[in-house]
Amino acid sequence: MFTGIDEVDWASLRHAYGSAEDVPGLLRGLASPDATEREVALDGMYGSVHHQGNVYDSTLACVPFLFVLAARPEVPDRGAIVELLVSIGAESAGPAARAAVRAGAGTFVPLADDPCPGVRRAAAGALVRFLDEPALVLGLLRRRIAVERDERVLLALTAALGLFVRRHPARAAGAVDLLAAQGGPPHPPGTRLAALGQLALGAPERLPADLVPTAVRLLRERSARRTAGPDRPDADTLVGRIRRLRPSDEEGAYLLRTLHRALDDRVADRIALLVGQLGSPVVTDRCSAVWMSAGLFREWRADFTAPVALIGAQLGGAEDQLRDAAVSVLAELFRLAAPAADDLYALVTARPDLWVHTWERGRPSLGGPLKGLARSGDPRAVPVLAQLLARPVVPGGLGFEVVHLGRAAAPLAPALRHRLGRIPLDAPEAAEAAAPLLAAVTALADRVAVPEVLRLLRGAPDGFGAREALVGQAVRALDTLGTAARAAAPVLRRLLDTRHAALAAGALWSAEGDADAVLPVLMRELTLGRGPSARTAAEQLGRLGAAAREALPALRAAAGSGRVWERTSAAQAYWRITGDPEPVLPVFRSAWSQNPYTRGSIAVCLAAMGPAGAPLHDLLTAELATARRHTARPGGYGSHDIAQDERLLADCRTALAGR
Prior knowledge:
- With 659 residues, this protein is mainly α.
- The chain is elongated.
């Protein structure tokens, strides 16, 4: 079985943690009669030889031995070995790895009929991925489907057919016919649901007109007949831990994820499917639906009232896993969580033990239910936050959540000031503790908080990076407090020759309104600064209005620079100083297309322009008509800041309403 293994110079080969001299032991462990030893060996293969999907020279050297192991009937757990080979040969692993697995792909042919269901299940997809004989592969799949009785293997065969359709579109007709047949009686509901998902991915024209009701019905039929699977291995290995963390119905979750992925931008259908899943009498179905909803909410824009309300309804049950999943999703929806606010409030009221999450190490943080309630903007969070502010230890990040409550959080201002004044300035964690409190003071524009903020600004010690981190936060807070911050002027002037110069100049302008004191500083930062410093200088110059006319030539030059953020900030400042939209609108149009992250600030500026921004209203109209969130990309990639995207939509509507 291991002929030639000792002839390989393993010590000269490498894996994720250095020399591969331990690899022969791992390979032999995969063939051990002891289940724990096999689990430890598989753990080692994924943990070092194929670490995080990477392929090393030792990985390639293992491939021939893995094929031998996969072909020997006496070796237990050969399905896991085939899965490892499939992972090594994945397209993302590189051409050398793929070629190594393709070279042995003939081994997968007899495995399609192996007595072990786990081997047959793993071999189905391996055949499609690596065997360069489409006609043979389709014939093997067709024959196996006709005789297969194991439902889990049937699901793998269905997925393999779908993969075949996508990889061989010119030869796909036979596979599509097989999928269409599997989508109907007498096949079991799980197989039919899998076939619908694969048809949606590769041949949507063959889907039934009543796809969503059919899928929901099949899901419920499948759940009604499902029995608990075998106990998971309890070996304390990476693979064992991953298996224990998987959902109890991983197979059902995969079936529905496939269908959601295939439906993609058919958002109304996906919402209807979620509503059906969330109405299931089976807890695991509802839990899977909650997790799937997160991707839909992050990537797409729609009226999500119905599914959000149903997710809120999951908070009142006795199932901790379902409740925790619902809380996790709702906490990331911000204002979109409003339909679930009553349920969040009920949970907050009933379970004070969930107000704070205590970690094994580090500072406690705000609990998910209270965080979700505050982020939704619900003022009922305020009294509970007040109680937490009165405790000896304030949960980390509490102040950041106060920001989302707006003026409703004004009663918290005295407690926030008190906590800010008690931060020990010589503590290494001073900046971390101050940041959320300063954010809250800034959002509330609490003019009475100047002494506490100034204390931080004056007293932050050097070392540990504490002073550098605190200064920027404190200066931003002072900037919002206007003339109430005049007492801070001497300290702000001392910062005009530091890396915080542009921020300090803006705060000094807010406190004293002395353009002569700040204009030279801002001009210097605009022309000599780089990146964020120049951008901040432009933003502050725009606030000076007509008093900054001296900066117009430099701003116009910056608006033509190669950096999109600096161009955008300079153009915004130019308009705020002159009121002339003509030079800035072309800059906005190009930035809008070049970098979606600029759209928020541009929309705010266009709203302030009123009718003068009309030439760009086509961008706003198109944005409001776009279903995908502005920073999300096809396939679910990109940033998914729901709150940021919802603000953009609101600003687009405001700008169009003011034309």
